[in-house]
Amino acid sequence: MYAACFLLAWFLSCSSSRIPGDTSKGRHLLVERHHTSDYMTPAPVNRTYVSVYSALHDPEAGEVRVFSEVHPSNACMAAATCRLQGRGVDLSVAAKVDMPFGALLKTDTPEPLECFHTCQLPPGSEGVLLESVTVLGNTSQVVLSQRVERIEVLGVQKMSVGICSAPVFTDVPQYLDWLDHHRALGVEGIHIYAVIMDLSRVRDAFGRGRPGHKKRLTVQQSRRVKWHTRHMTDYDMPSHYYGQLMLLNECLFRHRQTYEYLLFMDRDEFLYFVDTAPTAVNLAWEFHSRLAGTNHTSLVFLSAVYRVHCLVAFVPDLAERPVHSGSDAEAELQEYGEPYQVYKGYSIWEADHRKPDFFNCTADPLGENAPIPGRGCHSKSVVRPLTVDFMATHSVFRPRPGYSWSPMAFPTDQAFIKHLRCLSDRHGWIADDSASLCERTLPVNYSVQAGNGDGVEVCPGDL
Ligand SMILES: *[C@@H]1O[C@H](CO)[C@@H](O)[C@H](O)[C@H]1NC(C)=O
Ligand SMILES: *[C@@H]1O[C@H](CO)[C@@H](O)[C@H](O)[C@H]1NC(C)=O
Ligand SMILES: *[C@@H]1O[C@H](CO)[C@@H](O)[C@H](O)[C@H]1NC(C)=O
Ligand SMILES: *[C@@H]1O[C@H](CO)[C@@H](O)[C@H](O)[C@H]1NC(C)=O
Ligand SMILES: *[C@@H]1O[C@H](CO)[C@@H](O)[C@H](O)[C@H]1NC(C)=O
Fold first, then answer.
1. Predicted structure pTM score
2. For residue 342, with 0-12 CB atoms within 10 Å meaning exposed, 13-18 middle and 19 or more buried, which class applies?
3. Ligand 1 centre distance from Cα of residue 186 (Å)
4. What residues does each domain of the chain span?
5. What is the pLDDT of residues 360-409, one digit of tens each?
6. Distance 389 CA to ligand 4 centre (A)
C-alpha cells in the first residue's frame, strides 16, 4: 500500500493520472511545478534530473550508500562503478543499484524516483576515512558524486530505541505530548526530517501546493530530537510525498549502528500499551523478548484513528523554549502564526479504556510478502535496523539475506498505535468542539480494506 495514495485519495484518484505527458513508453517526462496560484498547465521537462541527498559510510559494515532522487530511471541504472576517495584512499568498487519503489507507483505521474547506490568496501578497508564518492557509468561518465558522511557507530553500547519520522511540513498540536509520551516509554532519540518549502498555500487543480492548508511547521528544539532537512525542488509532486521513501531509508541507514530498534511513525501517532502507564513499559524488553532468536526483522503494530478536537492554546511556559518557525512565502493569518501550541480535547495521559475493533485485521501487505488473508489495516513497525535492506514507508520492504519477509504482529490486546487525528477542513483545524468525533460508517464491513484512508476508527461511545 502506497502511503501517498492515502493522502491524495480525497483529492486525486491514485489510479489515474490527469497530468498530460508522454505516455508512449514507461514513465512520463518529468513535470516542473510552478509556485504561482494562477498556474495550471504543467510543462513536461525533457532533461535528466539528479538530486543527491546524502552518501553515508557505515565503517562497521564497510558499506557506502548514496541516496538520491532522479529522473528518468536510467539516470540511476547507468551506474557501474563507485570511486571512493579519501585520505590516502582511492578505491574503485562495483556499484550496486536499487530502485525498489518503481513498481509501487502504479500511476505514471511524473516525479523524481528514489535511487540507491551501494558500494561495498573490500575486506580490510571497511573503516577507511572517505571524503567523496563518485558513481560512474560503464563508459566512465559521472552519474553522480557526493561528499561522504561517516555514520555514528556505537558498537555493543548501542542506544535501545529511536524513532524515524518523515516528512514533516506542518505543525501538529500533539507534538509536545508525543515527545513526552515516547520519552516516558524509553525512546532515546527522535529523528525528524523536515521539508523546507516556500509553497503557495493555494491548491491548484492537480492538488499541487499541498500541504498548505494546515498550520506551518514549528521546529521545537529538544535535546532528544535531531532535525534533518530536505529542501523542496521544482519537481516534487504531492504523490511523491516530499521524498518520504528516500528519507525513511536514509534514517534507517544513518542510525543502524546507533539503535537496537527503530520505530517508524508520524508525529501524531502514539505507541500505546494497553492499560499501562508509559513509564511502566520497558520498551526495549518488549521488543527484545519477542524478536531475539528469531529471523524476523520487525514487529508490526496495528493503528486506530482517534479523532480529536484540536483546540490550540497559548502555553506561557513554552515561551522558555527556543522556537524557530519555518519560513513560508505566504503571509499567515494571525491566529496561525502562534508558535506555542497544545491541543485541548483529548489527553493521552488519562485512562481511556476503549479498545479499537481490529477484527479480521492484517497489516498492509508489502514487499514480496504474499498477502495475508484478512482486512488490510493500517500499521506501523519497529525494526532491527541491521536486518533490513529497505523500508517502504512504515513497513519493511526488503529484509537483509537470512531474515524473514514476514513481520511479526504485536498482539493488539497488548499494544497498538493511537493515531490522534485533528478534525480539519481545507483551511485548518476545526475549532468547533461540538463537531462529531465519529466518522465511522456503520455497520463495519470486516471484509473491506480498512487500511485505506483512516482505517479502524474509535468513536466516543465505544467500550
Ligand atoms: C527531448 O530531448 C531530445 C534529445 O535532446 C530531443 O530530440 C527532443 O526533441 C526533446 N523533446 C522535447 C519535447 O523537448
Ligand atoms: C553500458 O551500459 C549500457 C546501458 O546502461 C549498455 O547498453 C551498454 O551495452 C554497456 N556497455 C558496455 C561496454 O558494457
Ligand atoms: C476477512 O477479510 C477477508 C479479506 O477481505 C474476507 O475475504 C473475509 O471474508 C473476512 N472475514 C470475515 C470473518 O469477515
Ligand atoms: C525463518 O524461520 C522460519 C521458522 O523458524 C523458517 O521457516 C524460515 O525458513 C526462516 N527464513 C529464513 C529466511 O531463514
Ligand atoms: C462488504 O463489502 C463487500 C465487498 O465490497 C461486499 O461484497 C459485501 O456485500 C459487503 N457486506 C455488507 C454486509 O455490506
1. 0.85
2. middle
3. 55
4. 50-150, 155-458
5. 998 765 545 566 778 888 899 999 999 999 998 889 999 999 999 888 99
6. 17
